[in-house]
Amino acid sequence: MKPAPFQYHAPKTIVETLDLLARYADDDGRVLAGGQSLVPTMAFRLARPKHLVDINGVTELNRIAVENGRLCIGAGVRHSAFETPVEDGPLGRLLASVVRHIAHHPIRTRGTFCGSIAHADPASEWCAVAAALDAEMVCESKVSGTRVIPAKTFFQGIMTTALREDELLREVRLPMLARGTYAGFAEFSRRAGDYAIAMAVATYRLKNGIMSDMHVAVAVGGAEAAPRRVMEAERTLIGRPPNLGTFQAAAHAARMAIDPLDDPSIGADYRRDIVRAMVSRALENAVT
Amino acid sequence: MNEQSGATKWIGQSVERLEDPPLVTGRGRFVGDINFPRQLHMRIVRSSHAHANIVSIDTEAARELPGVIAVWTAADIADVPPIDFREGPIEKLAPYRQPVLAMHKVRYVGEPVAAVFAEDPYVAEDAADLVTMEVEELPVLLDARDDPTEFSFGRDTEAAILTQGYGDVEAVFKLAAHVVELKLTSGRHSGVPLECRGAIGRYDASRDVLELHGAAKVPHRNKELIARMLNRAPASVQCFESHVGGGFGIRGELYPEDVLVCVGAMRFDRPIKWIEDRREHLIAANHSRNQHHHIKAACTDDGEILAIDDVIYHDNGAYVRTHATRVAMMTCGVLPGPYRVPGAYRAVCHFRLTNKTPAATYRAPGRFETTFVRERLVDAIAYQLKLDPMHVRRLNAVRVDEMPFKRPLEALGEEIHFDSGDYHALLDTTLNHVEWTRLNRELAARRENGEMVGVGLAMFVEKAGLGPADGVRIQVDTTGEVEVITGGASIGQGFETVMAQVAAEMLGTDMKKMRVIHGQTDRIEHGIGAHASRATVMTASATRVAALKVREKALNIASELMQAPLDTLDIVHGEVVIAGRVGGPSMTLGQIAAALGPSSKTRGDREPGLSAEGWFYADHQVYPYGNHLAVVKVDPDTGAVKVLRYVVAYDIGRALNPALVKAQIAGGFAQGLGGALMEEFTYNERGDPLASTFADYLLPTLREVPDIEILLTEDYPSPLNPLGIKGAGESGVNGVGAAIASAIDDAIGIPGAITVLPVTPQRLKAIIDGKR
Ligand SMILES: Cc1cc2nc3c(=O)[nH]c(=O)nc-3n(C[C@H](O)[C@H](O)[C@H](O)COP(=O)(O)OP(=O)(O)OC[C@H]3O[C@@H](n4cnc5c(N)ncnc54)[C@H](O)[C@@H]3O)c2cc1C
């Protein structure tokens, strides 16, 4: 449980960070954010980065702000920042209800939102939220400058993203949810704070008592290699009133649509069942 | 002489723990805190194959790393025998002992194959990474129910077949009105202390003494075992216990790492420090509990159990460690629990080795498993015969007028004699406490409304206080401070507090004046350590004897010096006084100690020192008993189980410190809950462990463990020791699997549904959905 040898770098600015990444990316250099995923993997020697570029001292990255209808979350923002709503609308409330499912309080005071997105664990709550809301990932490198990658193409597989080795995920932008948007979350994990077996994020808006097509989103996390919106489930909701029958139909559609992970501890069928339960519950839980 | 002083009563009080101040102020000293000048760090290279022939081990690259002193494989310690059995050599089992480093073959993932010694723990780990092993894979054996395979040339993996029983089983079954049959499995889990293991070997050439620091549980026994294995006189080996962050039966046994630091210390003439990491702990320290039972009961129409016939497949993992076959043998002996079973009984245990981490004792060994099996059986009898399960329990439980109850079965080598108790009365206490009838009505109403809620109960008999003898030495210094020198061990249970309470009460002095010594083999010759719920029964009883002797010595000389008749004296607040007289003459224990000094003029021809050794002897263990009751709610969509309410009723005989007894029960319950619902060492088909981190080996946390209700009774003090003590350590864990299984059956409305522990959500969902 002692990491393999590495060199430690502590830049103070984004420019320095990008410089260091440009220099060391090829030589197994990595960003160190909250360290709550990276450090344990290093302790197990599953990861052996030769260089760590610690961004904890880069104060420019600590920003969290609403700009152009988007919540911009800098790479220095910790999970615990969301424990009280960061804005007074459905998005702030959704994030506050989601964050308490991420690990335990001490871990949340260190781990970062962007670190979760960059790490892309299939069962990361923030990744599921990012998928549901079509988040934008702002990636930056010395060589290729800034790229904005939508969630849909960003998440590529188990701990695999479109982020390049020399790129810093500088911030993530979540579209604000208009007032009146219903948003809900549900997950199932064996213990409080564990990575979930499956989870669902759901949003919708009502027009004349039925769910309107513009704002329906159902995303599933934990069940597949990467979180994603499940169109089959969304379609069953559009144009319908929000009641248990409709929700269960969507849940059933999600259950059928997914291609579940199958590992020795959790079988594919069981995961499908959990997806169904969580999609239904996320919709039932949804509040505005 | 009056034994009870007129002074403060300590026994029976929930006093604060004597040992807490250093622990809660960050001044504890755990093995990781201990360092010696010039020490080297050891790192173990472990097998990543579950079963393979070793072709070669390449240590060259590791040896060349700067800072590395040596890298050993089995060939380097050919003179060190395999880890021996604690109770002495057993010829038949000897071939199945674990070598300190794997020889020729590896038999589980995690088995030590090489040891790296380096100047720095980081370097040691870097070097361990460079050790490579060439192997020839062999087929793995992972299920003890499968046919045995070859262990070594000419020997198969069924290391022993153990049996216990009485009566003519076939004859009783032939005539029985009903036969109830079940197949049940208890999963592989274990005690997982928060502090991983650690060991520091140190050889003091100036005194020719080999020291092992970081000993726990049974330091005196390990001293003997190390001496035996390394061919040294026991007097030249000393073990030292530091603070211990949890033991639970698995920590403190003699493991390969302990032997390696000792051998290394002597070979290199430098202290060797080894601290286990969590992954190592989960694959290297003893596992436990994994058994498969195929049990049958022969019953009468009204539910009386006439005979039991059980075939057990005990999965002991890859080797037979220090306990030999103890858990399996205990399983055979304690299975009938509180029930009479008058006709016949037979347990045949196939003690088998598999390619998994070796297994041994974990808190309530053989009892967590058998209570699950036995109480499942009783529920099944009730269901099959359409009887009330509580009626079946009452009918079969040994009655108070049958006590002491002898049963021709054995536990830990002694015939089982239940010393005292009223099982029916305690069951009434439990059922009345929860208002059983009303509770069932309420739960039934909730089930009608679609909720999956249910209740289950388990009865059990514990066992504690294994003899035959334990001794304690007490000495008072000239300031009146008292050393209580025991051969016990403290694994966090409050050992110091309880010994101090007993000594203080007998001596009539403040318990804060006590210094309780434990786990230091250089301070006292013998010691039983802390296991099998023995410490309070045996060591506290010995403490009482020693303290009473000291008291007698003190009063004897005080009587002369104070010129007062012996029977008028008492010791109050550490002073000898004339009983009932305020403001009369007095002498402090410190003054008496001075008066008894070797060169004191007042000593007369008395033996010097205000000190005494006391021994307590026990022919038989004591048998406390209890009930567990669980109310659970099942989520049919996920298979998750939530414990809504949990009650433990337990007759402890006499609680020296009720708060500590309750803490033992509550802590045990948390571990039982883990074993019932969450904790499981699983393997893939290649024998790779799948639960080697806390992300996969699920210990219940504060969020999963509900508050429990504890009904502690002292109705039947044990007649086998003067304080009436029975043990407390294992009662909280004993019945959890059984009670929760029964409650889940009730909640989902499928009698007998639960046959495997732990009841994971995935398993339960499959049962609910009928996909068994
Ligand atoms: C006990 C425990 C339980 C946990 N439970 C959960 C849970 O339930 N749900 C959950 O989602 N997470 C959980 N986590 C993980 C936690 O949320 C982490 O904080 C998160 O996954 C990673 O964030 P971090 O800031 O700690 O990243 P780090 O660990 O520092 O980095 C993780 C990876 O992302 C890269 N990285 C980080 N930031 C950037 C960036 N800005 N640009 C480019 N690359 C970057 C790093 O190079 C590294 O490869 C748990 C962790 C622990 C220890």
Arithmetic mean pLDDT of chain A: 97
CATH architecture of the largest domain in chain A: 2-Layer Sandwich
Q: Please indicate the percent range of residues of chain A in DSSP E strands (runs of 2 or more).
A: 15-25%
Tell me the count of domains of chain B. 3
Number of strands of chain A: 16
Provide a quick synopsis of the model.
Chain A is α+β, with helices and mostly antiparallel strands. Chain A has helices at residues 14-24, 38-43, 90-99, 105-108, 113-119, 125-132, 151-154, 231-237, 244-257, 268-285, and strands spanning 7-9, 29-32, 51-54, 64-67, 70-74, 136-141, 145-150, 155-157, 160-161, 168-175, 182-188, 198-204, 206-207, 210-211, 217-221, 228-229. A five-stranded antiparallel β-sheet of chain A has the order 4-5-10-6-7.
SSE topology:
The complex is a heterodimer of chains A (288) and B (772).
Chain A (H helix, E strand, L loop, with lengths): L6 E3 L4 H11 L4 E4 L5 H6 L7 E4 L9 E4 L2 E5 L15 H10 L5 H4 L4 H7 L5 H8 L3 E6 L3 E6 H4 E3 L2 E2 L6 E8 L6 E7 L9 E7 L1 E2 L2 E2 L5 E5 L6 E2 L1 H7 L6 H14 L10 H18 L3
Parallel strand pairs in A: 1-3, 2-3
Antiparallel strand pairs in A: 4-5, 5-10, 6-7, 6-10, 8-9, 11-12, 12-15, 13-14, 15-16
Helix pairs in contact in A: 8-9, 9-10
Chain B lengths: L19 H5 L15 E7 L5 E7 L1 H5 L3 E5 L32 E2 L5 E7 L2 H10 L1 E6 L12 E3 L2 E2 L1 E9 L2 H7 L2 E9 L11 E7 L4 E7 L3 H12 L6 E5 L14 H13 L3 E4 L2 H7 L6 E9 L5 E11 L10 H9 L9 E9 L14 H18 L4 H8 L8 E7 L2 E5 L4 H12 L1 H13 L3 E10 L7 E8 L5 E5 L8 H13 L6 E4 L17 H27 L7 E4 L2 E4 L7 E3 H7 L15 E7 L7 E11 L4 E12 L6 H21 L30 E5 L17 H4 L1 H13 L7 E2 L3 H8 L4
Parallel strand pairs in B: 1-14, 10-31, 12-13, 16-17, 22-23, 29-30
Antiparallel strand pairs in B: 1-5, 2-4, 2-6, 3-5, 7-8, 9-17, 10-15, 11-12, 11-14, 15-16, 18-19, 20-28, 21-22, 21-27, 24-25, 25-26, 28-29
The complex binds flavin-adenine dinucleotide.
The site of flavin-adenine dinucleotide has 29 residues of chain A, from β2, α2, α5 and β10.
